[in-house]
Amino acid sequence: MTARPTAPEVATGAVPAGSASALFTPLRLRSVTLPNRVAMAPMCQYSAGPDGLPTDWHRIHLGARAVGGAGLVLTEATAVLPEGRISPQDTGLWSDAHVDAWRPITAFISEQGAVPGVQLAHAGFKASTYRPWARHRGGVPDAGGGWTPVGPGTEPFAPAYRIPAALDTDGVAAVVDAFAAAATRAVAAGFEAIELHSAHGYLLHEFLSPLSNHRTDEYGGTLTNRMRLPLAVARAVRAAVGPDVPVLARISATDWVPDGWSVADSVLLATELATAGVDLVDCSSGGVLPSAPVPVGPGYQVPLAARIRREAGVPTGAVGLITEPEQAEEIVASGQADLVLLGRELLRDPYWPQRAAARLGAAPDRPAQYLRAWE
User: What is the pTM of this model?
Assistant: First the structure.
């Protein structure tokens, strides 16, 4: 299939004056240009085999969003180690077999003019759990294909979850190496952007949050110590992929509780992540506690992205109940974020970007095979 033409390059974060739509202007991240500011957020599909290999489901699921016009298509949380999977049905990138399995998927996404990106992840103490529609809840036992998870300590995420083993310093170093190795494989598999999952109560967030990190060594206690692992991962991944590949980081910008990780902490983290080679901070929230008083509503996390962008001076992505084209347009046009990530809305409508472009006065990027629908 003939690839769609690529968008002209613009400076990172810049919206050209006089553009019909800020949302549908290109975004340059290092050597990669996103054709627009709409990204598909990582969403777990729980549909891989026990070996973590992507399936036809992933090819169709991710490919459909590229056909639908998203500028950046991010995979689900893809584990850097087998024990880093959320469920036994999660995808991975811990072996060369995964490289071969991902290649046709990334190739198809690229052919549609979208940028294929992978979210590299380690689930930490939230690993070895049943997928959401399973009859059981909580931790998967060894007999059911589960394993012992790891974390900053031995406290489980919730009573129904498995008790983790505390990572020692060698284990922490092995996690850093695993992220770097997976990033190298990702580039070999055709991914053009890497996102580091440091949110939602998974391993890197567990080290950041004082609610889950009670260590007394160099990885616990002070904010500097709690940031040590995520920053080491960011530096290792940047070194592994070289200077041209964009690296993003998804963070939980707040735990939504007074004694937890705060937005002020995230401003400092974002500044350090940028120094470590991260190009854009994807601002989500919560997840380290089984329940928290999250003020869920349309665009409820956008102010987090806006504050981090303003105070840390780094490009940000906004995510969370962004559903309407005009809403997404305002986020980018007003400078609250450089990128809008859609999750459930793209599950409901893979062609949301095309519909949004038409409503906002931009030219919809429709594949030639579908043009007869508008004749």
Answer: 0.94
